[in-house]
Design brief:
single chain, alpha+beta, 3-stranded antiparallel β-sheet, 5 helices, 23% helix, extended
Length: 213
C-alpha cells in the first residue's frame, strides 16, 4: 500500500570521510529531523485531528502514560501498545560475573551498568510498523541536503559546525564544473530546502519526532 502522507520526510546525505571504511567517499542517508514536539504539542496535534476529546483530556492521559509506563518497566513488565509496539526493559553490563561461585556475594548494582527503556515496533500483519512497512505505508520521502561537519575556531576555541547544502545546488555545481566545497550554508538552515538544519545524527539512535502528520 502506497503512503498517503502529503508531508514529506526529508532525507539528507552525508559523505563517508573514513578512509579505512569500505564505504569511503560514498554518501549515506540520514533523516532531516525537525523541531521536537512537546507532550502538549502532541496532545494538540491529536485534538486537532477530529478527536472527540478535548486538549486537556488528551494531555492528561498522555501525562499519566509517562508516569505509569516507567513504573511498570522498572518492575520488569513490558507494555505493548497496539498497534505501535512494545516498551520493555534491557540492561547494560558493567562487569560480568565470572562463575557460579562468584554469584553468592555478587551485587546486581555492580553488575548492571544501566537500564534502558527499549521500543520494539509491532510486527503483526495489518498492524506492522517495522522499518520497511512503516516506510511503505507512512513515509513519503524527498532528498534535501548534503550534510557536512567542519571544525572552526571561535574566540580561540574549536567548535564543530554542521553545514547544509541543497542537493539540487550541489548537482548544479557539479554539472557546471564549479567546486562544491566552501559553499555550504551555515547551520541556520536553508528556507528553500524545505527542511530544518540537521542535527548531524541518525534517528535510529534517538531521532526526533516531526510535527507533521
Amino acid at each position: 500500500m502506497a503512503t498517503t502522507n502529503e508531508i514529506k520526510l526529508g532525507i539528507n546525505l552525508r559523505k563517508n570521510k573514513n578512509a579505512r571504511n569500505a564505504g569511503y567517499g560514498k554518501y549515506y542517508p540520514e533523516v532531516d529531523t525537525q523541531t521536537t514536539l512537546s507532550l502538549r504539542g502532541f496532545a494538540k496535534h491529536m485534538s486537532d485531528h477530529g478527536s472527540i476529546y478535548s486538549l486537556d483530556i488528551i494531555e492528561g492521559v498522555l501525562k499519566k502514560i509517562t508516569q505509569c509506563l516507567p513504573e511498570l518497566i522498572s518492575q520488569g513488565v513490558p507494555v505493548r501498545m497496539e498497534p505501535l509496539g512494545t516498551f520493555m526493559p534491557t540492561c547494560d553490563v558493567e562487569k560480568p560475573i565470572e562463575s557460579i561461585a562468584a554469584m553468592e556475594n555478587a551485587d546486581p548494582n555492580e553488575v548492571v551498568k544501566g537500564v534502558h527503556i527499549r521500543f520494539l515496533p509491532y510486527g503483526v500483519e495489518n498492524d506492522n510498523i517495522t522499518s520497511r512497512r512503516f516506510k511503505q505505508e507512512y513515509c513519503s520521502l524527498e532528498f534535501r541536503n548534503i550534510v557536512d561537519s567542519a571544525t572552526v575556531s571561535v574566540d580561540g576555541k574549536e567548535k564543530k559546525v554542521t553545514t547544509l547544502k541543497p542537493i539540487a545546488t550541489a548537482i548544479a555545481e557539479f554539472k557546471s564544473g564549479q567546486p562544491s566545497s566552501g559553499d555550504n550554508q551555515s547551520s541556520g538552515g536553508n528556507p528553500s530546502s524545505g527542511g530544518n538544519p540537521s542535527s548531524g545524527g541518525n534517528p535510529s539512535s534517538g531521532g526526533n519526532e516531526s510535527n507533521g502528520d
